[in-house]
């Protein structure tokens, strides 16, 4: 796959879609039916809508052949798109802003999460005497991958306490059993990760939560406003070249989000791969209750979300400080609005 050029521009939009039949493309013929999606930590609830769209054949219903590549963290998934091996990323919205700061234009076109769901916790084993964020100075913090949304959240919490990323060591531990093992073995002193990993560690009494962004109220407390989380984003070049394919992707994801609003625990368990459950179905369902509110009910970006994300990055990341970031080029609700007129759960 050739490396793509990243050009700013306006996404060309097409007509309404018809969902439910693999060949019902009211939005127009797909420019390409094969789409490569990169994701970092697919088993996490952060990306659950992507798994639902895949496992319940919503992508196939749109005529899409989606190949999903799973990486250890969102920053690695981003690199796949920049390098040209992926067309679309299921990742954190703030990555579109970091890319724009480097003159690479990517745009979010359907939101998966309206709260980051990320939890920062300290190990009761290695930090039994923890009293404040300042105690993290000189410590090792596990994140899914350096540069991922988990390290962004941790960096922001550190910045609010007067610390920088240079005051700690970020260690990539992934988003599953590896993260749990790193905490339990004492390889790390703190962990920024997501459910079901964090609920499992909470229930076993091995961590103390110090910052939590699993609910809307907690997210507002941490970030000061609506903080967009997981989304589908692609280069502006891809969107402009493939508006009908982009619409089909949005249709499938909106359908997945609607399905999640009414799905029972049994339906959810029967849909996701067994490996997602970490060997404990009750734990998975308990974790789901923690984060269900964080899922976007409709895929729409909240009006103040992009500004909150930028403000968060500017608090600690020199990449975006002083850079003229044009938020309007980082997201669009156009595809989702079109999907909402036709998509049924």
UniProtKB/TrEMBL annotation:
Subcellular location: Periplasm
Swiss-Prot/TrEMBL keywords: Signal
Keyword Signal belongs to the record: yes
InterPro entries xref list: SsuA/THI5, TAT_signal
Family of this protein: Belongs to the bacterial solute-binding protein SsuA/TauA family.
PANTHER family: ALIPHATIC SULFONATES-BINDING PROTEIN-RELATED (PTHR30024), TAURINE-BINDING PERIPLASMIC PROTEIN (PTHR30024:SF47)
UniProt-recorded name of the protein: NitT/TauT family transport system substrate-binding protein
Source organism (scientific name): Paraburkholderia diazotrophica
